[in-house]
Amino acid sequence: MKNILIIAGEASSDRHAANLIKDILSIRKDIKFHGLGGAEMEAAGAELLHRITHLAFIGPGGLLRGYLKLRNVFNCLIRQIKKQRPDYAILLDYAEFNLRVAKVLKGMGVPVIYYISPQVWAWGLWRIKTIRSLVDKIIVFFKFEEDLYKRYGINTKFVGHPLVELAKADTDPKAFKQSLGIKESDEVIGILPGSRKAEIKNILPVMLKAAALLLKTSGGSINFILPLAATICTSEIEGMISASGIKVHILRNNIYNALNICDCAMVASGTATLETALMGIPMAIIYKTNFLTYILTKNVIQLPFIGLVNIVAGKKISKNSCNITQGLKRFVVISKKSSPTKPCLVISKKNFWR
Questions:
Q1: Domain map (residue ranges) of the chain
Q2: How many CB atoms lie under 10 A from the CB of residue 23?
Q3: Which listed residue, 34, 87, 90, 297, has the most CB atoms within 10 A of its CB?
Q4: In 156-307, which ranges are continuous DSSP H helix?
């Protein structure tokens, strides 16, 4: 029986790890997965030492606040690794944590595969040498990542992005609207505030204020839907929504059916921007961090814009703002009438899929 350590620290990584586990187990039954992750990995058959997706942090500020919890999880994991040496390790994203784990694994002679690579193209190339010394192979979702890592002599394989196959609705949009009590002719705007508790705290209030402005300018004829990430409890957002006075349909495990009925959306920068683009929905990309993270990273991030959909396209095809310096009214312009071009038609799918 092969023993594989697998670690995913984000909601999106948990989903990709779960799908990877399912695919591997469909081919090989003599493999046991264990490690750190979330509910989807556990449902796919992984034995979790800790659930850590709820510990996902944003930038250096978030890392400092969550340091003690992460250190305890790390120490517990290392004790388990030394007690039961894995045959292989698969690490997903979560670079600040996973590269420390990779250093220990390298010292034990355990082959390390990085699936969903650290975003060195955003935070700077100083991690490249560390990755090259600790990782045996990197499996990447974007073609430009393969080109970058190979340039530095790292064993890299481009496999395409799984969302190309996953981002599909399975319910008729008319029937889905009816199930929510929304008329077929009514306008629907999506609210996607992220999958981390800190993101929800920082970004959802801004989106709700933008929603209030939209209602004011439209005469109150807009429906709002919020597909909730698996890492967030409904109780964590109900207070904010209630305080806003805005009616919002909260949906669980239904992001693609939800996006399929949207005329446009407000989306937190991250994986959700790709999902929204692949569903063909115009969007405004929003991001807001705490002050410490903003100060520490504003001169480090080496990108001209935020949002994976813009990064993959290599140009700004969706309006974006970080820390809302341009004000809320910027987001009132998102609608199919003012932005008729569908993002998924602008992005070349060769950037997503081999």
A1: 2-159, 173-351
A2: 12
A3: 90
A4: 163-166, 173-179, 197-218, 235-244, 255-260, 271-278, 291-297
pLDDT tens digits, one per residue of 39-49: 999 999 999 99
Which of 128, 79, 82, 75 has the alpha carbon at shortest distance from 97? 75
**Type of residue numbered 347:** I
Residue the block writes with tokens 């290392």? 78
Helix or strand holding residue 89 (H, E): strand 88-92
Task: Provide φ and ψ at 166, rounded to 5°.
Answer: -90, -30
Rounded (10°) angle between helices 95-107 and 67-83: 30
Six-digit token pair at 145?
């990542």
Give the architecture-level CATH label for domain 173-351.
Answer: 3-Layer(aba) Sandwich (3.40)
According to CATH, the topology of domain 2-159 is: Rossmann fold (3.40.50)
- Are the folds of 2-159 and 173-351 the same? yes
- pLDDT one-digit tens code per residue, 128-164: 889 999 999 999 998 888 988 999 999 999 998 888 8
The pTM for the full model equals 0.78
